[in-house]
Design goal:
Elements lengths: L2 H8 L7 E4 L5 H12 L4 E5 L10 E2 L2 H11 L2 E2 L5 E6 L6 E8 L10 E2 L4 E4 L2 E4 L2 H7 L1
Parallel strand pairs: 1-2
Antiparallel strand pairs: 2-6, 3-6, 4-7, 5-6, 8-9
């Protein structure tokens, strides 16, 4: 994915399969959405997008990468999403972080984040109701 692809991706705002966050300061909220993607049709989580849909990026260093990897360990079963770092033109050192999560596979147990299952209703992430969770087990 390049910068132009990212512009096209975010042009329609958040959807059932797209979550946008301003920075990795919102990692926990982002991982709830990632869990919801894993429990539905899959999706993409992007860090570095302002609420007005401007690609602002952030400085990404080894600590940032470790933080992203560490918080993903809260997802059970373990996942290995595709992670891309997109350079922001005119902002040396700034990147957007794009994580792509696969969809739920029928017959597999639902994913949880920090012990809770999540799902998406349109562009909103919610705790999965117990009956839906039980049905998927």
């Amino acid at each position: 994915m390049n910068f132009k692809d990212l512009e096209r991706l975010i042009s329609q705002d958040e959807t059932k399969s797209l979550e946008l966050k301003k920075s990795t300061g919102e990692l926990k909220e982002g991982m709830r959405s990632a869990c919801a993607f894993l429990n539905s049709d899959g999706g993409i989580l992007v860090f570095g997008i302002s609420p007005s849909l401007k690609i602002i990026g952030q400085i990404v260093n080894e600590s940032t990468r470790r933080d992203v990897a560490q918080i993903m360990s809260g997802i059970d079963p373990a996942v290995n999403p595709v992670v891309e770092y997109i350079d922001i033109p005119g902002k040396p050192g700034f990147q957007a972080i794009v994580l792509k999560f696969n969809p739920w596979v029928y017959g597999t147990r639902p994913s949880t984040f920090q012990g809770k299952p999540y799902y998406r209703v349109e562009s909103v992430t919610k705790v999965m109701p117990r009956d839906l969770f039980d049905e998927r087990i």
